[in-house]
């Protein structure tokens, strides 16, 4: 999800549009944009340093259908 957001940031898309399409809060997208913007300038490095520590792979929680996620 963050990789898609980063690609959209690079295209200059607005945070609100990214948040709406990815179904996350605008606050999260603004935070991701700040992290993406502060990462190294070379594009390949920028994306690599922006991805989560999992190496960009979605975790089970990120890929589980919303009906399977338990809220405590």
Question: How would you characterize the overall build of this protein?
Answer:
This protein is 58% helix and 0% strand. By secondary structure, it is mainly α. Helix 2 crosses helix 3 and helix 3 packs across helix 4.
Note the topology:
Elements: H1 2-10, H2 15-22, H3 26-38, H4 43-50, H5 60-63
Task: Spell out the key features of this protein.
0% strand; 72 residues; globular; disordered C terminus
Summarize the structure.
Helix content is 58%, strand content 0%. The protein is an all-alpha fold.
What's the Cα radius of gyration?
Answer: 13 Å
Major beta sheet, specifics? none
Estimate percent helicity: 55-70%
Intertermini distance: 23 Å
Overall SS class:
mainly alpha
The H-and-E topology, N to C, reads as: HHHHH
| Total tally of structural domains | 1
Total count of helical runs of at least 4 residues:
5
- Envelope shape: globular
Number of strands: 0
Question: Which regions contain 5 or more consecutive residues with pLDDT less than 50?
Answer: 66-70
Strand content: under 5%
């Amino acid at each position: 999800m963050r990789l898609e957001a980063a690609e959209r940031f690079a295209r200059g898309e607005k945070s609100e549009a990214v948040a709406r399409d990815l179904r996350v809060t605008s606050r999260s997208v603004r935070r991701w944009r700040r992290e993406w913007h502060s990462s190294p300038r070379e594009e390949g490095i920028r994306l690599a340093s922006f991805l989560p520590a999992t190496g960009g792979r979605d975790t089970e929680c990120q890929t589980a259908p919303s009906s399977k996620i338990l809220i405590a």
